[in-house]
Amino acid sequence: MSKLTMRLALVALATATPAIGVAADDTAATFDALRAVDGRMAGIAYRLTTANATLCRDRAPTPGWAIHAIGQYDAGLRDQARRSFGFETPIAVETVVPGSPAASAGVRANDGIVSVDGRPLDAVPPAKGASSAGRDAAVDAIAALPADRPLDMVLRRDGQTRTVRIPASPGCRSAFEVLLGPGMEASADGRIVQIGVRFFERYSDDEVAVVVAHELSHNILHHARRLDAAGVKRGLLAEVGRNGRLFRLTEDQADLLGMYLLRNAGYDPQIAVRFWRDHGGDVDGGLFRSRTHPSSTARAKAIEAEIARIPAGAGRPYVPPLIADAERPLQ
Question: What pTM was estimated for this model as a whole?
Answer without folding.
Answer: 0.89
